[in-house]
Design a protein that fits this description.
alpha+beta; 2 domains; about 20% helix; four-stranded antiparallel beta sheet; globular; about 25% strand; Immunoglobulin-like; 16 strands
Length: about 350
């Protein structure tokens, strides 16, 4: 039996889609929409579908980034590949294959978000012809520009605090204080699943404008909702395999609950910056693609009553020892609200 990894899948299918053997037809892209149209009738079906969708997501992000890279859409390539590298427990071979292209795409995308901008030709000299007695090395000018744009670095460090929950799940983001910020490109394929009466992931960090899909992978009904205005929503009662999408356009914490199961809660945290990261369980974090400059670093944690803020200066080598402490002082509400904001009793036996 041949083990088909995500890289193998990409190689077998090709960057353009599936091409039938001995066929002259152009390849057709499979599409990147999730969920996949796989029936779910048993617990085994749920596991199979989740595994298939994970591999399909990995392939789409990997190959979709390469297609964007090939046509010069550097910002889209960076967005897809950075989303890919945030997938938990990703095959190291995939990270090894993608990283060199990602580094190059980041360098080319700096200052030109979302589009590929060709370097304009140098103007021909009109006056002072003696100054241009020898041909000007235009290639040197191009290399100089790329070198200056390749100075993007990372900001990394560790979060501590968070009370009994611990530092994991803290969301950190940067806002530049001495210059313009890069353009926000909402990442694709952001999914929060309901599985075993739990929201996975418990905390999802996304920039403004991101569309998140809420999917029921349990064999019971769920009713996902939030009363956090202006990002409030009500997905209604959804059966196994059903989905609901919501686009979040305002920054802040969006606590998500289930109107059927009062023990379920999670968060979508919306940031107003393209420079962000979520801390690992250990508290470690890394924000990539940062231009040198002066920034405000902010950190949110579900157990903290306030957002932690500090000013940092990012040099040409980046910053790799940032220490951030988040609070653990936030007290739980007096009751778990239903989707109308009213008090309800914990659901028993379901």
């Amino acid at each position: 039996m041949v083990k088909l990894t995500a890289i193998g899948l990409a190689a077998a299918i090709g960057l353009g889609g599936i091409r039938p053997a001995n066929s002259a037809e152009p390849p057709k892209w499979l599409g990147d929409d999730l969920p996949l149209p796989l029936p779910v009738k048993t617990p085994q079906d749920i596991g199979f579908k989740s595994a298939a969708e994970r591999q399909y997501l990995i392939f789409n992000l990997m190959a979709g980034g390469k297609l964007a890279y090939q046509r010069g859409d550097w910002a889209l390539a960076v967005d897809k590949w950075e989303t890919l590298l945030r997938i938990p427990a990703l095959d190291p071979l995939i990270e090894k294959a993608v990283t060199p292209f990602l580094v190059d795409a980041r360098a080319k995308a700096a200052g030109h978000p979302g589009t590929h901008v060709e370097t304009p030709p140098e103007p021909e000299p009109v006056a002072q012809p003696e100054k241009w007695a020898e041909p000007r090395p235009r290639a040197t000018a191009t290399v100089t520009r790329r070198a200056s744009s390749s100075s993007l670095v990372s900001v990394s460090g560790s979060v501590s605090g968070g009370g009994q929950i611990g530092p994991g799940g803290a969301v950190l983001w940067l806002k530049r204080l001495d210059g313009p910020m890069p353009h926000i490109v909402p990442p694709p394929n952001q999914v929060v699943t309901q599985r075993e009466k739990t929201f996975l992931p418990h905390v999802l960090a996304v920039p403004m404008g991101t569309t998140v899909q809420f999917r029921n992978d349990d064999r019971i009904y769920h009713n996902v909702f939030s009363i956090a205005k202006p990002n409030d929503f009500d997905a209604g009662i959804r059966a196994t395999g059903a989905t609901y999408t919501r686009t979040f356009n305002s920054p802040g914490a969006v606590e998500i609950l289930c109107n059927i199961h009062s023990t379920m809660n999670g968060y979508v945290f919306v940031v107003d910056s393209p420079l962000y990261a979520k801390a690992q369980a250990s508290g470690a974090f890394s924000i990539r693609g940062v231009a040198p400059g002066r920034y405000e670093l902010a950190a949110w944690h579900e157990a903290a009553s306030n957002i932690t803020r500090k000013t940092i200066v990012v040099g040409g080598e980046g910053v790799h020892d940032v220490s951030v402490t988040v609070g653990g002082d936030k007290r739980p509400g007096p009751f778990v609200p239903d989707k109308y904001g009213h008090k309800r009793q914990p659901q028993l036996g379901y």
